[in-house]
Each structure stands twice: as C-alpha cells, then as structure tokens.
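Input for the complex:
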Amino acid sequence: MPRPELLIIGGGVTGLCAAISAARQGARVTLIDAAVNAGTTANAGSLHVQLQSRFMRLYPEQAPNVEASLPLYLRAVREWDALEASHGPFEMVRKGGLMLAEDAEQLAFLETKARREADKGLDVEILDRAALERIAPWLGPQIIGAELCRDEGKLNPLAANIRLRAVACDLGVSLVRDRITSLSIGSEVQLRGEIDSYRADQVIIAAAWGAGDLVSDLGLSLPSRAEPLHMNITEPAAAGIEHLIQHAERSITLKQLQSGQIVIGGGWPAKSRGNHAVPEVLATSLLGNVALAGRLVPGITGLRVIRTWAGMNTTIDGKTALGRMPGAARVIVAVPGDAGYTLGPLVGRLAAELAGDMPRDVDIAPFSLARFAA
Amino acid sequence: MMSDPLTFSFEGEALSARNGQSLAAALTDAGQRVFRHTGKGSPRGVFCGMGVCQDCLVTVDGQPNQRACMTLARDGVEVRRQIPRPDLENATTAAGKPTDAPAAREMEPDILVIGGGAGGLNAAAVAAAAGASVLVLDERKVAGGQYFKQPAADAPLLDAQQSDGADLLAAAREAGVKLLGGVEIWGAFAGPLLYATAPDDTPLVLRPKQLIVATGAYERPRMVPGWTLPGVMTTGAAQTLWRSYRSLPGKRVAVCGSGPLNLQVALELARGGADVRLAAESAPSPLKRPLSAMALLLAGPTLSLAGSGMLLGLRRAGIPVRYDTELTAIASGPDNTLRATFRRDGKEETLALDALCMNDGFEPQNEILRLLGVDMQYDPAFGQLRCTRSDSLSTSVDGVYAVGDCCGLGGAPAAAAEGRIAGAAAAAACGFTSKENLGSSHRALARARRFQKRLWALHDPAPRTLETLPDNTLICRCEEVTLGQFRSGMADDADHIGAVKRVTRVGMGCCQGRYCGPVAARLVANATGRSLTDHSYFAPRVPIKPVSIGTLMATQEALDAKA
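Predicted:
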C-alpha cells in the first residue's frame, strides 16, 4: 500500500466527512476505525442548534464556550443541508426544535436564552400555549410555552452513515479496521495500532473521546471525556411530530423518524464498562427518560418501546477542538465536543481543508488547540 | 366443556368462539388467516403461537398490539386488523391514562421462577416443599409450558401428556407455589432485579433472593421464499391451536422440518380431523441408519417405542412420511391456498394446502440469562448457545439458576430433572433443606441426556446453511429484509452483526431479532471466518418484549412514590 498522504483516525461522521473532503481534493486517504463505541454507530440523529439546557445544567462552566460557538452550530446544520442535497436522502427534516416550559420560571429562562441566541444569529421565537396548540397539539396540557428554534432538525443517522460511507468508498478512501494506540512524529507520522503499523504525511485525529489519550504522548492535555448515554426507540406510529422536542430543565430529546418510530434520548446516563466495551443500559434511565417523554407528549403512551441502547457522547470544554497540534503540525485534531453528530460534517471538512492548506469559509482560530498546550 | 358460546366481532363481522379460546384460535376456526398487514403491505397471521413473533397483532376494543395468540376471546369485544402505523393518541384522553394504571406491586419471594413449564414447575414444587416462598411467572394465562400444553378453560384433558402436566401443576400448587399467569417480563438487571407487567397492567417489580430461569425455547423456522405467508406457522403453533383450543390450523395440512415434534403433531392433527397430506423430515430415514436407531432404543425403550407407535399411527392414518425431503418454497395460490414445494431426490412436488407447519429445531429463550451476563458457549451441533452451569444448575452469576431448554435444547424430561435439582439448590441457598432425592434426579437427568443425544443423531439439529437459498428469501420478518439485502449489507461492512444490523435494519423490528438474529449471527460468522460466541448474536437489550410507554410511566410513578 502506498503511503497515504492523509490518515484519519476515527470513522464517525467527522472522520468520514474529513475523508470525503480530502479525497475530493485529490488526496490519498486512509480511514482507520476501531468499530467499538466508534463509527457514529449509536447516534440518534438530532440536529442541535440552540443551547441545550442539559449542557448548561451539567457543565455550567462550559456554557460561555457553548454560547460563543452558536454561530458554528448554525453553519453546521447548513453543512448538513448541503450534504443532504449532494448525497442524501438522509430523511432530514428541518422544521425546528421546541424547548418546552412547564412553569413561569422555565419560560422566563427560555426568554432570556432566546434573546442571547438571537444576538448570535439564531432564528428563535417564544411561543405561548395558543401558538403551540397550532403546531404541536399533541403536547401535554401542562406545557405553557416553548422556545422554537427554526434552525434545528433531525435526520436518520443510519441512512446518513451508510450513504457517507459509500461516498467515501467511491472516492477511493481506504477503510481499515484497527485501533490506533500511539503516534510518533518525524519526517512523517508513524502510528501503531493493535493489528498493524502505519505511516502517513499527515494525520487527522477525529477520535472523539479517544482523542485525549492519543495526543497526551505528544504533550497536549485535551480533556476529551466519554459520556455514555441512554436511548430508546418505539414501534412506528403515524406521522405527527415534526419538531425536535427538548425541555427547559429536564434531560430529553424526542423526535419522530420517517419510519414513524419515536426516538427518545437526551442525555440520560448509561453505565460505562470501559471505553472498549458497549455501555450497559440502566433501568433508572429507561424508566425516567421514557416516563418523562410520555408526560410531555401523552399521545405516545400507547406506543411500545421496542429497543434501548447506549452510546458514547464526547465532551471537552464546551467548544470544538480543531487545529494543528502545537509543535507537531503534521497532526490535526478534529473533535466537535458536545453535539458531535450535528457539528461533525463541518468540523471534518474544515480539518481536511486545513490538511490541504485550502482556504476556509469559517475562521477556526477560536477552536485552536493552543488552549490545551502545557 | 368449552361449550359456552362467545360472540365477538372481527372487522365488523360477528364471529363465535368457545370459552377459553385464544383470539388466534377463534379466528382460525372462522377461516380468518390474515390478522394484519405490514407497513409494506404483506399479509400476516399466526406464526409462532407463543407470543414471540409479534406477527398476529390485532386491535381489541381500540387497543392495538394485542397478540391474538396470547389474548383470550371475550364476549362482545371488537377486534380489528392492526394498522401498521396507528395515529398518535389525542393528548387529552391519553393524558389521564398513566395515573389510571394500577399501582406497582413489589415482590420479594425467596425464589422467583420464570417459566411454568416442565423445568420451572418442578423447580418450584421442590423449592416450595422445602419451605421457601416461591413465585412462578408465566407468559401464558395457563401455565404448563410448551410440552405439557394445558387445555384452555374447562376442556377435558386430551391424553397422558396433558394429564401429567395437570398433575405437575396441582403438585406445585399443593406445595404452596404461587403461580401468576399472563405476566410479561420486560426487564432484567443485576441484582437480580426484574420488571414485569401483570395481565391487569399492574407493574411488577421483583427482587428475589434466588432466581431460576426456565424460559424454554421457541421454534426455529424453515426460511424459504413465502415462509411469512398467513397459514404458514410453526409446528408448535399448530399444536397449541389443537391441544389447547381444539382448533385445527386448516383442513389440508403438511408438516415439515426436522425432529420428533413434527411427526407427533402430524398425527395429533390427523386424529383431530385434519387432512394431513405430508410429514416431511429432512434427515434420512432411521431405517437407513439401523445402528443409530438401535442405540436410541437402548437409551430409552419407552420413548423409542412411543416414537415407533407414532410412525405406525401415521402409516395407519395413511399420512405419507417422507425422509430426505426439503421444503423449498411457498407461494400463495387462489382462495388463500398455499402452494408448498418440497424436494426429494432431486425431484420437486407441489402441494395445495390450507396450512403448512414447520419446525427445524429450537432456539433457546435465553434473553434474561444473556441480559444478566450469564456465561454461554456456542454448540455447533445444535447451532445455539448453551449456558454454562454447575452440577446444581447454578450459572456463572450469583443467585441465578437456569434449567431446561433456555440453556440449549435438552427436552422436557431433562428439564424436569434439572428443575428438581435447581429447586433444591436454590432452596438450600435460602436456608431451606429439601427432602428431594437428588440422586434419583441426577440419574434421570443423565438418562434423559443420553436419550436426547441419540434421538437427535437421527434428525437434523444443526441449522441449515443458507447458501442455496434465493436472494428473495426474507430473513427478518419484521423489517422485511431479504437474504439478498443482508448479503449486500455484509459486502459493505461484515465485521460484526451490529454493523450489518445498522446497514440493513435486520433485527430492528418488534420481534427484536428473535428469528433473524441466529441466522444473521451465522452468516456473519461464515463471512468473517470467526467462530460463534455469545458476542456473535445481537447484544441483549431491554425491553425483553415490547413494553408500552404507559406501563413504563406507571412503573416509574410507583418507584417515585416509594422513594
């Protein structure tokens, strides 16, 4: 195998989109993925734009970074629009997301949040119950209002992953199954995997929560953390819920896929069994998450849950990590941080353009790795 | 007698049923075979007859997702074919529901036995006799399991097999066992902690000191083009229709696959009045293998003679028994007739049938064991996972015992002996001493295992290779994924069953991968050249059976209230 010009670690949506973009530039690309807790295999397909209340509550110290990144989220959903147009259909729907309030305090919180988000260019509006009634008559009677963020949406990640993988293959990207365990840098990058060793001119690390370990040997302390999360899916129902549903205070996402199935998630924990085994589903998360969904959208209570699963979310510091490694310019880190599926295609493309020294339509300076250098 | 006539409606048409009949049986009696259509428009009806396949779903009095095979016909109910995608309920009417649900019951028996068949009932009876508090949960309203198949309501017992079952049930009750029927278990977590739903929708939260899993097996189908057509069902489903409800699956019937159940049911249906056109066994005739036949006779003279008697009975009834005979395809003919094609010695024959019964072996119902992390090993001879157990039938997980066919096929006599051994051991773990003669149970178990080994040497217990099957054969009933689609999914990314699942949607439907899972695991193993292990199968996931959001809400409310 001739030495690839670009080797990408991580076959999730970020890595795939980086590979597609680099291969389009004409680069010889190899994509390596370990296939356990990897490869975007567990995502539930929410396209997030507005500040997630879950994030603000759990990681208040990161909230300013998330807020500063809002324009990136806007660009990211437009990136998905473009991907859908050229490689879809991914069953994408961009009718917006509703963040629900059940009392005056929650509604006041949403009003403040909406003002700050509007300042960052988001298309948001506060709806009262009467306005909600017109677009979401299936909501529980206790919902007094909501923030509508028109930029949000949903897609079927299974459909998108299959298509993107096929596009990468068509462009000649070589897909390799291995887990990279270390990197060293000289006139080229040398990588050691569990199965084989590799060399490349440049490397993009799109390994989500696994990125921190890979770069620590190179002197960067990137605090990428794996966050095992719980998800549920029901049997199909007639189409009725167009929006992505969230809550001002409680952890939940709820959406209906084109199949008619309702996907319920939003950040309930699963139990980690180590980074190399699939996380374990917790009874408390299944019951709590689904019961909350049924309370907010009572019309789904007759449906049956047919499956649950758990996957890994990745958090850093509330902001994307994207740039060349300080002191090791052949290595590029591309980790979206929270909402990795939403941000992945944009972050991946920007990383590939960085590798190819191409002009970029987004200023990536705010996401520089310098903040993690010792 | 099942004489009380009930009246119910199906799609607006008035039908009658006998007291205690399942909806599936009553509809079958009325000549109704199509219970619903899939999202892609394919007709479906009774298939597994035991609550596994989720294909006989109907709407009863407006409530969707009722399995016709598990639901009793009641006077005055309105039954409709289930539509593939029900409308979301109106929020205001639905909003009242969760609080209407009965409060959850928490139960902490010394010993919880899951499954009221040969293994579970024996385990329960022995443990209760030793003094332990024992609760048996069964998915069916009437316990007894697949082997003892008890008659519905007040029907008379059919034969010794049913009366033995009735005696065992009586003995368990006599010993103080508490039996709860119609219970659906949907969650199993470390502890062990189990969640279930009682027939009146009461959520159950179970924290036993010791757990005995005796969930049995379900039937391995013969996957050929057309195997999902209404009228095609497992041999066990047809047997349940007849033995429990006195309904025949159809007039013109054939039975096929491999194993002694097929021959037994062919004879039972014939005696019940069916016109059995063929009993097809894929293994060669025992006459061609006299040494194996002799070995079987020596290992179990009584059961062997019963088997010979069955063959004789079939001959007397004029039912052709054909060996080396394979089902190759099923098509639907005019007037709901099935046209089933069989191949023998390179020659094909097509029969016009009303019902085709298939049993190609068994798959263990090991969902609870796998969820609890019990160690399993793949048995290539039977093509299934076998649970690792000690001499006292304890598993690799503390406080969890496993008996019977859920651990890998062993047959009812072995399950019964295992049950008695496990019942005594679990009681001892709770501080109760059993007077059970364990020596005799261990000897019975050894005998039963010897017999099973020789019995299956005469049949074809290994799963079929799918290489010769055409690409249009469905392998996932629920998501309607064909073998061809699965093959191209593997070509794209064959590394693990989970990857192929995400690409093809195989196993994502309501039966939760119970039929396609074992097949998919073997196809991926063949493609990758890896041997099968527990990890080759779909990862075990809750819910064990589909569970309504309303039930989950009621369970959560009850737990909240307690906290």
